[in-house]
Amino acid sequence: MFRIKSPQDAGAAVVFMVIGLAGAYLGSDLAFGTSARMGPGYFPIILSWTIFAIGVIVGLRGLTIEGPAIEPVQLRPLLVIIAAIVAFGYLVERLGLAITAALLTVLAGYARRDVSLWETLLLAAGLAVFSVALFVYGLSQPFPAWWGR
Amino acid sequence: MEFDLLHNLATGFTAAASLKNLGFAFLGCLLGTLIGVLPGIGPIPTIAMLLPITFGIDPLSSLVMLAGIYYGAQYGGSTTSILVNIPGEAASIVTCIDGHEMAKQGRAGAALGVAALGSFFAGTVGTVFIAGFGPPLAAIAQQFNSPDYFSLMVLGLVTAVILAHGSVLNAFGMVLVGLLLGLVGTDVNSGLTRYTFGIQEIWEGIDFVPMVIGMFGVVEIIRNLEQTELPRPHVKASMKDLWPRGQDFRDAWPAVLRGTGLGSLLGILPGGGAVLASFASYTLEKKVASDPSRFGRGAIEGVAGPESANNAAAQTSFIPLLTLGLPSNAIMALMMGAMIIQGMQPGAAVMTSRPELFWGMVASMWIGNLMLLVINMPLIGIWVRLLSVPYRLLYPAILLFCVIGIYGTNTSPGQLALCAVFAAFGHVLVRFGCEPAPLVLGFILGPLMEENLRRSLVISRGDPIVFIERPISAVLLATTVIMVLALIVLPQFRRTRKEAFQE
């Protein structure tokens, strides 16, 4: 059996191969055309297979040359921050910037383990006031300050 | 000719130097420095985060502000390099070596002051360079045909790959993934949508702002939160003597001159001129020094040279963008994205069709550099204090400004979902040792490259020989081949590259 010598390379190889295959598969219903008359699929399909080939080479390197390990993934910051971003998008139109900004700050605060609730609430209030003043009133960005407006 | 130059510059300064625009330049520089000085946030995420605030204003003001942000972000990065030894980007790595050493010896003020003055001088020369050589180069650019454009993009992308961090192969893969992502959306030629999965949000292509903020800004925050100890910079040195002393000036000026010359020339090359320039300048300074052993122990030339070179190159790297409409590195790709959003397609045509915009932009570069000096000389003390704000208070604010920036650009929840997707994607890539910067360059060039390839092959009826038949294209491709061969054949070149990127 092969032994993976460079986990990072192995990971990168998988990413490249998946993107390459997906690009080639999803592009397969686009007309390829000919060199003189490139179809919509011509360039993307050539790119996809080249990406796949790079994935294969990176993978072979990962099996033959020692390389760095993959740092362990910590799910908490990743998931919390991503949730905060998506939630902001869906809530800001309904709740207004003031409340949404405060919510985002508190949620983002919980991306860390040892959060101090009071400190986070203070920061949230401060940032809410600041961002409404600057972006809604100062720069007239397209945000409602409160719900229903 | 000389009269033309003065006349053109006068046009530019009249347009750009209105009180309103000076205000925007000031604001841009201030915000750029403010965000750029934060540890772990290099110029690319800084510009990405601040881009959206330039969208609401008229084109020239927004370009002026953008230039301010750009220089502010660059200088902010140098400040962090010198004070806390955290380079925000590849071009600042060499500044860390002697700059931080000087800071440890209590000469941070001298290092920061020389960096600011050297950058200003280099920026001024770089601006004159653009003004003087822009029009003739634009005339050459008009000789460019589709095959030449295609070959130039190949050269630019290959250079970017070679100058990227880490594995060359990974960087090459990232460029190609970027090209592919750039093709997502409606194909202009056939009108068919490609890779959209029926999601309306991306029918017009993937939006640039959520992508770059996700891949750079948000990834940076998540990565910092993963550290067991949040980044808490220790500012060791006291800041008593802000101004460089007389001896410092005498040591630094020759280095500034050499760095400026080197940087101005290398900046024109496609593909990461600033990085190349700062490394080349450091090597040069070490070579010409009477006592090379001082380097690495706080030699002021080791700060003055690379910082000037970096800034001169940052300036002249606008030339390929403004004459050919091709960005030569990830930052220029960001600038190009911003210009397109403003309804200005960068290229030689801008110079003739909208001279006030082109020359206004050139003038604004110099104004931006001046603002930088005006803001930073008195404020260095404040930047130092900003660095002592704990990260746990900083990151929610940064995240909030990121999402406000995205939503303000395009008021749709889908844009934030897109940002989240790219944050996750970027996070995975960094884990696997793939830097996202080459991807951005590919993303911007994707549609351009496809279009020029298509046109070239239509002209030649599908025969790829057209790329070596045209002299300009042939020279560009030959340069590309030589660079790739040098990388493969010369072990010394490979070693230098490896050393250069060790942090």
Characterise the protein shown here.
The complex is a heterodimer of chains A (149) and B (503). With 149 residues, chain A is mainly α. In chain A, 66% of the residues lie in helices and 0% in strands. In chain A, helix 1 runs antiparallel to helix 2, helix 3 runs antiparallel to helix 4 and helix 4 runs antiparallel to helix 5. Chain A starts with 6 loop residues before the first helix and ends in an 11-residue tail after the last helix. The model of chain A has no long low-confidence stretch (mean pLDDT 87). Chain B is mostly helical and 503 residues long. Chain B has one domain. In chain B, 74% of the residues lie in helices and 1% in strands. Chain B has 22 helices and two strands. In chain B, strands 1-2 form a two-stranded antiparallel ribbon. In chain B, helix 7 runs parallel beside helix 21. The radius of gyration of chain B is 22 Å and the shape is globular. The mean pLDDT of chain B is 80.
Question: Keywords for this structure?
Answer:
heterodimer; A: 149 residues; mainly alpha; 2 domains; 66% helix; 0% strand; flat; B: 503 residues; two-stranded antiparallel sheet; 2 strands; 74% helix; 1% strand; globular
